[in-house]
Structures are given as structure tokens and as C-alpha cells.
Design brief:
The chain is built from seven helices and two strands; from the N terminus they run ββααααααα. By secondary structure, the protein is mainly alpha-helical. It is flat, with a radius of gyration of 20 Å.
Length: about 150
């Protein structure tokens, strides 16, 4: 909470509403980006199309996410992990449970469950990105290298 001065009097300013509205806008943009990417493919997806679908300005998208590739990377990360927390898979309870398994079979079963859930969430988005990468989309060359680095 910030403090402002109005007519010589100090007043507390609560910006929680603005913070929540900004978060809601980011979620709308991510959902719109997913819809547009799956419907049109990577090359045909533009920031303008995403902005129109999300009912926000393109400037808001650039300010919140950066360029198209950065937006797609953020969307990929959220789809991969299942939420927008800045916490890697290795720091999550499901990973800790897998690592605590006393048997190899238990480890493999938990690992298989984690991987299945990851790919269920990624689904169509991963297909779009793989097709674009295969077609030589220059943006996705570095994207693939970065996701491989993170995976390993």
C-alpha cells in the first residue's frame, strides 16, 4: 500500500484492485494466445490478433510479456507446469514425492504420472510449436534450445 498526499492530508492508497486487474488481463491474454495459436498456427498468429481476442491493447501485451516469442514462451511454461507460479518442477510437491519413493517402480510410476500430466496440458500448443519449428520458423530455433536446456 502506498501513501499519497491529497489537499495536504496523507492518505493510504490501496492498489490491490489494479494489481488484480492487471493479473486478470495477463490471464486473458494467455488464454487468447493459446486459442489463436492453436487455431491459426505460430506464423499466422500476431500480437494484434491476440490483443483483439483478449480485448486488450497490443501495448499492454508488449508491456506485460515483451514480444511474441516471449509471450509464447510464458504460455508454454504455464501450460507445462500447470500454473503461473515462478517455481520449477523440481521444487514442487509431486517431484519431491517422486524423489522420496523407496522403490524404483514407485519412482517410475510417479515420473510417468508427472510426464503424462505435462503432455496433457501442453497438447495442442506443443503440436503447433513443433510444426512451426519443423517448417523452419526462425523464432523457434532458440525456443527449442531453451526448452531443451530447461528439461535437461
Amino acid at each position: 500500500m502506498a501513501v499519497s498526499e491529497v489537499n495536504g492530508r496523507r492518505r493510504a492508497y490501496d492498489n490491490a484492485g489494479r494489481i488484480e486487474q492487471a493479473a486478470a488481463n495477463r490471464r486473458r491474454v494467455l488464454a487468447a494466445a493459446h486459442r489463436v495459436l492453436v487455431e491459426r498456427g505460430y506464423a499466422a498468429t500476431t500480437i494484434n490478433a491476440i490483443a483483439a481476442e483478449a480485448r486488450v491493447s497490443r501495448e499492454m501485451i508488449y508491456k506485460a510479456f515483451g514480444n511474441k516469442l516471449a509471450l509464447v514462451k510464458r504460455l508454454y511454461d504455464i501450460q507445462l507446469i500447470g500454473d503461473d507460479e515462478e517455481r520449477p518442477l523440481g521444487d514442487r510437491p509431486e517431484w519431491a514425492a517422486m524423489m522420496a519413493e523407496p522403490t524404483a517402480g514407485g519412482v517410475l510410476l510417479r515420473y510417468a504420472t508427472i510426464v503424462r500430466e505435462l503432455y496433457e496440458r501442453l497438447g495442442a500448443l506443443l503440436g503447433v510449436l513443433l510444426l512451426a519449428a519443423r517448417s523452419g520458423e526462425p523464432d523457434l530455433a532458440s525456443f527449442g534450445a531453451e526448452t531443451d536446456r530447461q528439461r535437461l
